[in-house]
Design goal:
Elements lengths: L22 H4 L5 E5 L7 H9 L7 H6 L6 E10 L10 E5 L15 E11 L4 H5 L1
Parallel strand pairs: 1-4
Antiparallel strand pairs: 2-3, 2-4
InterPro entries: eIF2G, P-loop_NTPase
Keywords: GTP-binding, Nucleotide-binding, Protein biosynthesis
Protein name: Tr-type G domain-containing protein
């Protein structure tokens, strides 16, 4: 493991067998992109923050007005507990993209399996802001 991530050894890596679900790929980059679209103040930024731990409101004006002015982007890793007896939905967890590949399940205290890494885009709420 390199800093908790799957090892990428180019001499052993079979490039023709890589897929978006291969551990070496999802360990380091988002393989699913998810855009959030909705009306002003309906929780798009809150959803992205809940999944990724990243606050996409980067500018003072965004915080003051409580709406997204610039497109926000954050990655998150999705995990499922390896123990089949771990109850749903507690067996699923989302962490920021810098989380190691196999953190302990908070319920069963055994390793979680990395399902995928998603990239979340927090869209701008109002048309005039999008157009310029």
């Amino acid at each position: 493991m390199e800093d908790g991530l799957a090892v990428q050894d180019l001499s052993k890596l079979e490039i023709d067998k890589l897929t978006p679900l291969t551990a070496e790929v999802i360990s380091r980059q988002a393989t699913i992109n998810c855009g959030t679209i909705g009306h002003v103040a309906h929780g798009k930024s809150t959803l992205v923050k809940a999944l990724s731990g990243v606050d996409t409101a980067k500018f003072k004006r965004e915080r003051e007005r409580n709406n997204t002015i610039e497109l926000g982007y954050a990655n998150a890793k999705l995990y499922k507990c390896s123990n089949t007896d771990c109850p749903r939905p507690a067996c699923y967890r989302a962490y920021s993209s810098d989380k190691e590949d196999h953190p302990l399940c908070e319920v069963r205290l055994i390793c979680n399996s990395l399902l995928t890494e998603i990239g979340s885009q927090d869209a701008v709420s109002r048309r005039p802001i999008i157009e310029g």
